[in-house]
Amino acid sequence: MQMHDTSLNMSTLMASWTTSVLYGINIVMYACCVRVLYHRGLVGFNRVLIIMATLQFFISTGHNAACLVQLIRGFITNGDTPNGPFIYFLDMASPEHVAQEAFYITNSVLGDAILIWRLYIVWNNNWWLCAPFATLVAATTICGYVAISHLAHFSPVDPVFLANLGNWLLSTWCLSLVTQVGATLLIAYKIWATTSWGINKSSSHMKVFWMVVESGAVYSFTTVILLSLYVAKENAGAIVGAALGQISCLVPTSIIVRTGLVSAATSTAGSFPSFRAATRLPRKSSQGSGTITQEGEIDSGQEICLTDMVSDDEAKNAGLIDLEKGNSLSRARA
Length: 334
Fold this sequence. Notes:
Layout: H1 8-40, H2 45-77, H3 84-90, H4 95-122, H5 127-152, H6 163-193, H7 203-231, H8 237-268, E1 273-276, E2 308-311, H9 312-316
Helix pairs in contact: 1-2, 1-8, 2-3, 2-4, 2-8, 4-5, 4-6, 4-8, 5-6, 6-7, 7-8
């Protein structure tokens, strides 16, 4: 039985409404993210994260603005023309729609890049592990912008489901999905494998584990829905696609904000929070490097990059294991 699809006017209206709601959440999350990073000090990895978060937030702002401009052009500017809104929204090559899709592709690529960077840090700067994912991100970027180029040259009556555009869009979404799922699983596995599962295991490690899994699942599940709707040639896919333009910014910032909430809860419980990247394995110290101290502690400049936040008591009982040497990590100190 064929699905009942939404009209083009309704799908565009719902897409803009969904985008505006998610953008409102992004405003709050970005403000909280800035507060968390500022509290930790804008040095080292924190500086990188605040730059990326700010860049993604501005792109999300442009994405939301493009959606709102389409509503104004469709329902206000062309509202008095017979079938004016439908004719306007049918034109996929309108500057506003092309800009919206370009903002979405850019934010999606940045979100994938941030995820690969986290993977690189968590796995002890293992470039060989991250190289395939970096290649996937590069391929996603190429496919995404080629799709935007095709979209910009559409005629006003060309549907978005044409093969010369659809193949590039499907490639973009599939590559991004593989990147998100693969990198998320590897990060989650590292947290799982380097955490002691004895009686004294810190509950903070499980919070970080589920935080990573849930964040990756949200983005991946939404991408799967978009893929399904596009293959079925449903206009409702525009709603999900517009939402992804905001979710791609929301997921990275939510990880930082949620770790900040864990820190606040730990402090309220009466223990001073020590911020440690607990999933990063120790390496031999290098004189003057400022990366890892003589005792295996991680410099505060690197704390927020996946950032497992543990209290003093939890840090003493963390019992993380060096997978390569079988040695326990040096205990974190406040």
